[in-house]
Give the backbone structure.
Amino acid sequence: MSETVLQVQSLTAGYVPGLPILHEVNMRLDKGKIVAVIGPNGAGKSTLIKAIAGLVIVEAGTIMLGTRNLVGIRPDEMAIFGIAYVPQRDNIFKTLTIRQNLLLAAKRGDGPPDDLIERMFTLFVPLRDKQSEKAGRLSGGQRQMLAIAMALVAEPTLILMDEPTAGLAPMVAEEILALVQDIAEKGVSVMLIEQNVKAALRISDRAYILAEGRNQIDGSPQELMDGQVVAEIYLGGRRLKTS
Amino acid sequence: MIQNLFDGILVGSILSLGAIGLTMVMHMLRFANFSHAELLSLGAYVALVFDKLLELMVPGLSQTIGGLSLTFSLILAIVISMGVTGVSAIIIDWLVFRRLRDSAGPLSMVFASFGVALIVRNLISLVFGLKSKLYNEEIVFAVRVSTDPLLLIKLDQVFVLGMALVIMLIFHFVLSRTTFGYALKAVSENPTLAQVNGVRLAHMIRLIWLIGGGLAAVAGVFYGLNNQVSFLMGKDLVLSLFAAVIVGGIGSIYGAVAGGFLVGLASNMALLILPSGYKPAVPFLIILIILSIRPMGLFGENK
């Protein structure tokens, strides 16, 4: 049986106290696996990832990383527990150079920052050539690459990715998704929020569908596709669970 | 004209030091802090107190340095004042602004800053009196550098200008070469992303107050050396500091430096064509001109 890295149980969370966006959400992520969280706009996918990253108010439930409950832990402490978060937008510091971005992120990791950064340059070769350039000058795909490198540089055990392919050209998006698979193959667990449902199901080991801040259904990508649940929910033919 | 130019550069260097802290606070904490200029007054008076204390405790420190009116005790007092003013800024934040940050809007913070400014200013006048003070009572004569055009410079002014530039260079080094500098820029640009990259926001806010307060203290002492130490210093300088920050682009430290020099220079050069009574209007004129050309300020970024 796979080792469970992250277990979210009955999570109720939101941006304003008393007005939760997520209602008793459950999910599980195993070591070295990719879990996709999909759902229509406003389903609470980003809120879920932010709740795990310590960025929104958790009103009830638990977020267990192994035996440790992450509820109440500050976002800047997440790295101590081996968690990295790649936000959907504004995920790099545009006014810093590429190297400075990585240096800042590498401070979270163990070991000399220069060595950690060098490993990232081996993995993301285009970034090495542009390391002295301001990150704001990078293309959309290269920005995502840098954002993922910033998450990986501290050698996390769990990466939370919020729509890493949003706004990218299809070919670049494919490259990013292939990269996500590589990351998981190296033993890092990935929680992936993705608008492109087909792509998300193709690369993930398990998927959770959220709507209106609640779990709708979950299972292996094959189960979800065979049951045509995805199509029904996205076409609006299926009645959503609202309580 | 050359005299106005020199005076403008000197005043500009002092304004730049004060404006650095103001722009950091305005950008990171998202409010116009009208009490920042009072930190200059506070710093000037704290240095005055420690200067006298050190002179009493170690009489040898009361010797002047070279041809300057500055004493060794005042140099030490400036360093102490930087720390005391920086810590005072943290305490003011803890007592007032921190409480409002989470529960009230930016406008409440602005009004609170007016209140803090009035309290600090009046406390200073209560403790030290309404009469202006000098760091050194002895008359210091200016050196005639040039007769035509006439240029008179005091050695103290050269020291002030030199030290202001050195402090700005050190700050530039910290910003551009250290991880702390990157973290400072990162927090200014995107506090949430900075947090998830391991930067502790509360810690950075304290450091920004400490640095801003420390630089304000130096600016206050330098202003006092060039003029007099008065409880009205903050009131006199607040608009020029805001002009420097706005002209330079809110959030840009280099913009604050450029804005400080621009406001200082323009205010002094304007005296060539305007009666001195119009001098306080010059910073506003600069704001209007620069913002009509670049609404985000000289070094500000498009939002």
Q: What stands out?
A: The two ends of chain A are 32 Å apart (CA to CA). The first strand of chain A starts at residue 4 and ends at 14.
